[in-house]
Amino acid sequence: MRLLGISGSPSRGSRTSRLIQQVLDAAAQQADVETELLEVVSSGAILCDGRPPDAYEGATRQVIDKVVAADAYVVGSPMYRGSYTGSFKNLFDLLPNDALTGKVVGLVATGGSDHHFLALEHQLRPLLSFFRAHTVPGTVYAQTVHFTQDTLADETQEACRSLAREVIRLSRALTPGQAGPAYPTIIRRSDQQPPSTSPRVGQA
Question: What is the C-alpha separation between 127 and 120, in angstroms, rounded?
């Protein structure tokens, strides 16, 4: 199982990344689980400009392919003004609509106080629901008092271990692609359609 952590913090080595890494480390203790942390800030992905996902190249293409290839996820963002960061949202704007269909996602967030705790439910969970992903009901939220320079509070570490167990357990219990009824088909504008491969008039 390929478990990908996605940190939407605008800072490298952030508290959000530390929290996600704690979940990944706990998951890696189980057999046949490969983990990787993707920090959006250092990914090289460009701003979404409305092109179809398969039209991007370079580092952006690599990031999209990495996310699509994963079997399950732990995603997180610091919460500013009650919501996730713009860089976090931009990554998901780049993805194909079916990139996470039927896959399991654990939710993580950080903040300066407890005021942002419910942003996990009002902001992060609806975003993953759009992608028809299965989100683990329990979440991990950590604020300033849960961090020291070298470690996390004991209760936060236990929450990370619990989230890791549930992401793996639920992912293994589900049939790949199992996500219930499909959403309505999105009709793209003519300038967003993939190039036609049919012969031109006058060509054999």
Answer: 10
Enumerate residues 6+ apart whose C-beta is below 8 A from 99: 53, 64, 67, 68, 131
Is 203 within the bounds of a domain?
A: no
pLDDT digits (tens, 9 = 90+) for 119-151: 999 999 999 999 999 999 999 999 988 898 788
**Owning domain of residue 145:** 2-192
Q: Give the total residue count for the chain.
A: 204
pTM score: 0.88
Rounded CA gap, 186 and 105, in Å? 24
Residue 90, domain CATH: 3.40.50.360
Percent of the chain with pLDDT over 70: 91
pLDDT band at 191 (very low <50, low <70, confident <90, very high): low
Q: How many structural domains is the chain composed of?
A: 1
Q: Please state, in angstroms and rounded to a whole number, the distance separating the CA atoms of residues 44 and 118.
A: 30
CA angle, residues 122, 123, 124, in degrees to nearest 5? 115
Residue 162 lies in a domain: yes
**Residue 105 belongs to a domain:** yes
